[in-house]
Design goal:
Blueprint lengths: L2 H68 L1 H7 L7 H22 L5 H11 L3 H9 L1 H4 L7 H18 L17
Helix pairs in contact: 1-2, 1-3, 3-4, 3-5
Length: 182
């Protein structure tokens, strides 16, 4: 082989060696991208599993409440409110069930904060729910201040206060849209 051919071959071989570190860097970047994508996917699966667990927990509670609403003796065992007739206790359990269903929709992402408040604003017009809310004020005092339940409770207290002032303006009471408490 001629010396010039040898030099050309050596130069080309050297280029091949130089490309290997770049190929390794490129491969490493691709692996990191794949790993980050995998982490994002696993995170999404975790969020969806949490939502599924929240929904399943709600389903169990709803089944208990349905049985209690159908059977006065179970309603007495499930309810913490005193001095109620069987019919009134069933109404309170159903009001709690309706409130929990609306809150669940927000928890799993069906409603944003403004939609949640809108649905609750309509529910607050119901006299049975208003009585339920008044009778359960003590229950809400034990909630952690930063919890969703406590924040929603404060928003509902504002709605009820404003409804008492002007019941004909029910569609504008409560936190203004866009003012998220989250």
């Amino acid at each position: 082989m001629a010396p010039s051919a040898r030099r050309t071959g050596s130069a080309l071989a050297g280029l091949g060696l130089m490309r290997r570190p770049f190929a390794r860097d490129s491969r490493r970047r691709r692996q990191e991208e794949l790993l980050l994508d995998l982490i994002r996917q696993v995170t999404r699966v975790g969020v969806e599993l949490h939502r599924a667990n929240v929904i399943q927990s709600h389903r169990f509670m709803s089944e208990y409440q349905d049985r209690a609403i159908d059977d006065a003796s179970l309603a007495a065992a499930l309810s913490t409110l005193h001095g109620l007739t069987d019919a009134k206790r069933r109404q309170m359990l159903f009001a709690n069930r309706e409130y929990a269903a609306i809150l669940l929709a927000h928890r799993v992402g069906v409603f944003d904060w403004d939609e949640l408040i809108g649905h609750l604003r309509v529910l607050c017009r119901n006299q049975v729910f208003a009585e339920y809310w008044e009778r359960t004020v003590e229950h809400r005092r034990s909630l952690a201040v930063e919890s969703l339940d406590a924040r929603v409770g404060k928003a509902l207290d504002v709605i009820f206060d404003e409804l008492a002032d002007d019941p004909e303006e029910w569609w504008v009471v409560g936190p203004a849209p866009g003012t998220t408490d989250e």
